[in-house]
Amino acid sequence: MAKDSIQRFLDRIKSDREELREDLMGLPLNKSECKVGDFGCGWGYITWCLMHEIPNSECIGIDKFDPDNPPTLSYEQFSIDNVRSLFEEIDADQSPDFQKGDIVKGENLSSGFDLIYCKRVLYNIFISNNGDAELKQAINHIANALKSNGRFCLVEIQEAQFKSILEKSLIQANFEFDPPRCVGRLYKTLEKIYDQYPYLIYQCKKAKY
Question: 132 pLDDT exceeds 50?
């Protein structure tokens, strides 16, 4: 891939990497050989950022890719089809792994994670046709994929009904967490910006049974 494409990619993710540092702030992530999952990874740029923000980690990006409509950042012409080769050109010694898996159905999910990161995923599940039930299923499958005492870093929209159901579901899945940290970032997607809703950052611990 051309150098200008690599530079556009690095410029594009600069603010996302800064936000990621804020999301991870305070988590005990200094141990070696940490297994990290990016659940709902999209086309994988946050997975790459996680790999570099948590040295010596094994990072796996997991998403339910549609083979007929793979995720694409259209205005930069990056997609899941070429992102792996792009990462290898930037850093030939390290590249995240990508796997197809479904967090709602619990299909093809790796386990034994020390940390699972999940951003702008669960609210999209919640507003689906069967949102309450699928949200609870997804959280239970995330809990099952974590080691005992593993950490779950969740970054989501602050919307009253969703927040109430989300926190109840986290407790039912045996997560322990302090009140979420609110940050004044805009809730962005590729299609729109929900500027009336700030982000909430949850840092959860999977309790021992």
Answer: yes
